């Protein structure tokens, strides 16, 4: 079960409250409060239903609802087209068997083009203004269908871009957690997971302040880039290129969020003289990232 301190720190970050906020620090300092275990259902409800603008856009349930409403609107417009133009029963029956909105648009567009061809031939033979007007109506309807198809393609590409962004964000999250798991964060009486959340917030804020983004090279190593004049360039400070590890260490040190060496350290409660357990997060996180990449490749998405 998650601890209340972890949940409070997470929700505070979403609300824009800085990790050094005095009220937040006082609350987290109460061990009984920060270590209080919450039922999973309660914690998950708060985390999932209290959304920022960014998390709402990335939330699969929200996106599914928006896409469903958009596709329902397109389907309604397609039904109108079938009703307004003289499609035979065979065509209507075929269309009802098509589930994909994209395929429906393609099939109706093809049907309208067949009608346009016949209407043009008729207008050329009769010279009747009504027949010529029918040609113009069909041309406009085909333009509308093409616009709908372009919009659907844009929606599809947007969803792919969202998946790529989610994949990249997952990589960033696991990479940063791995780095912080091995850092000497301060011994302030708070649970390690809360210190890691605080450190993550400090680093994220500094990246936003400096306009830094994280990318990954071909070997999967994190690389810092800074956005300047519309281009992403390597991140330099005083003409020195700064790598990911140095940046993380620098942020922690400048915020004094590192452990102060004690010549006679006391054992942590419950630890006794047992040696510290080795960190395993690097291996597990690398496996998770590899699994995410594999899932996206199965969807035909290049990462």
TrEMBL record:
Region feature Disordered, mapped onto this chain: 260-284
Taxonomy, superkingdom: Bacteria
Protein name according to UniProt: Uncharacterized protein
């Amino acid at each position: 079960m998650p601890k209340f301190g972890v949940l409070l720190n997470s929700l505070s970050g979403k609300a824009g409250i800085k990790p050094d906020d005095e009220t937040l620090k006082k609350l987290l300092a109460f061990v009984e409060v920060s270590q209080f275990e919450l039922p999973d259902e309660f914690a998950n409800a708060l985390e999932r239903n209290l959304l920022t603008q960014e998390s709402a856009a990335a939330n699969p349930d929200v996106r599914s609802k928006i896409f469903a409403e958009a596709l329902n609107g397109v389907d309604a417009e397609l039904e109108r087209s079938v009703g307004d133009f003289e499609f035979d029963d065979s065509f209507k029956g075929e269309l009802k068997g098509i589930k994909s909105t994209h395929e429906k648009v393609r099939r109706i567009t093809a049907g309208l083009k067949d009608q346009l061809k016949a209407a043009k031939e008729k207008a050329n033979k009769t010279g009747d203004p009504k027949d010529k007007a029918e040609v113009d109506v069909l041309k406009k309807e085909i333009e509308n269908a093409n616009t709908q198809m372009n919009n659907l393609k844009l929606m599809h590409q947007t969803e792919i871009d969202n998946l790529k962004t989610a994949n990249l964000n997952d990589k960033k999250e696991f990479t940063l957690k791995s780095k912080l798991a091995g850092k000497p964060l301060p011994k302030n009486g708070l649970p390690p997971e809360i210190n890691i959340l605080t450190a993550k917030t400090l680093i994220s804020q500094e990246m936003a302040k400096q306009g830094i983004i994280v990318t990954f090279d071909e070997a999967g190593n994190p690389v810092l880039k800074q956005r300047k004049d519309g281009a992403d360039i390597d991140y330099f400070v005083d003409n020195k290129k700064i790598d990911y590890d140095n940046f993380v260490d620098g942020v922690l040190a400048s915020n004094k969020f590192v452990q102060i060496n004690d010549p006679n350290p006391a054992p942590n409660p419950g630890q006794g003289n047992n040696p510290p357990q080795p960190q395993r997060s690097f291996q597990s996180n690398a496996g998770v990232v590899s699994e995410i990449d594999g899932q996206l490749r199965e969807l035909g998405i290049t990462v």
